[in-house]
């Protein structure tokens, strides 16, 4: 099967009825970029930059980060590369950074919330990204955005650093994009307002599901609630994709759901533009897309989203063929 699939490695990702999508890879380090390319990834849809900060005893310097981002961009050789700014806090801690204990870490100071509080730390990462932007097709993404104000504040800090670098004579790319993860239900519901301000969305279903269902993504006993196919989750996803398209923006997904073969026809039908997943899932996802008619799935979306439960959705999907 592997041999059959590898034939797809150099091919574009196209549905059975000729609709083009992008299938990209999720990475956690520069070394992972090679795996994405070997598996025929058309870009990086999520570079989790936490790894740069973890397993050490001090913050990575601006130069260390610059080298890591440059390495990924150079390896990707002009393919779109989404780098997510630091998503630390919550359960992910840094030994060298004192953070107050919180009652509900997943509802606490994590990701963009922490970066906006610790602006000096955030600025170092943004400078490293801006300097690296001349080496490829960089798309900068902010995690855990809940309000338009947070996105504006994060983007303002980025543009301030860009202006400072430019004034100092440091080259900065002029075609990098700035987008956000949609992983908080408030952001999914307000996607129309966000879509006017961002260059792209990437839906983070791992967190979006846990926050929509109020079910810890790590708690096995709650797996009956942690349901990617829940119509509640699917309606939020559709809202995000539709809002993006009304503004001519790209909607991608980088949560686990994007690489779930049962979900791909559904997401294709909803119009998702970019699917980002672990490198090992890319070829299977491409094969799945190739056997799916987008138009057929599109015609079924209203019916699927009117079903009453995730179980009913899964059953419907299984019975299509
Ligand atoms: C997500 O929440 O779907 C996501 C991709 O981010 P992470 O898994 O790193 O929280
Ligand atoms: Mg997340």
From TrEMBL:
Keywords from the named record: Cytoplasm, Kinase, Magnesium, Metal-binding, Phosphotransferase system, Pyruvate, Sugar transport, Transferase, Transport
Example GO BP: phosphoenolpyruvate-dependent sugar phosphotransferase system
Role of this protein: General (non sugar-specific) component of the phosphoenolpyruvate-dependent sugar phosphotransferase system (sugar PTS). This major carbohydrate active-transport system catalyzes the phosphorylation of incoming sugar substrates concomitantly with their translocation across the cell membrane. Enzyme I transfers the phosphoryl group from phosphoenolpyruvate (PEP) to the phosphoryl carrier protein (HPr).
Classification lineage: Bacteria, Bacillati, Bacillota, Bacilli, Bacillales
Cofactor: Mg(2+)
Domain PEP-utilising enzyme C-terminal residues, every copy: 7-292
Taxonomic source organism: Edaphobacillus lindanitolerans
Keyword Cytoplasm: yes
Major place of residence: cytoplasm
Catalytic-site annotation from UniProt: 254 (proton donor)
Domain of life: Bacteria
Keyword Cytoplasm included in the entry's annotation: yes
Range of the intact protein held here: 250 to 570 of 570
Binding-site residues, phosphoenolpyruvate: 48, 84, 206-207, 217
Catalytic activity: L-histidyl-[protein] + phosphoenolpyruvate = N(pros)-phospho-L-histidyl-[protein] + pyruvate
Stretch forming the signal peptide: none
This enzyme's EC code(s): 2.7.3.9
GO molecular function: kinase activity; metal ion binding; phosphoenolpyruvate-protein phosphotransferase activity
Binding positions for Mg(2+) per the UniProt entry: 183, 207
Enzyme class, UniProt record, top EC level: transferase
The name this protein goes by in its record: Phosphoenolpyruvate-protein phosphotransferase
Subcellular location: Cytoplasm
Entry similarity comment: Belongs to the PEP-utilizing enzyme family.
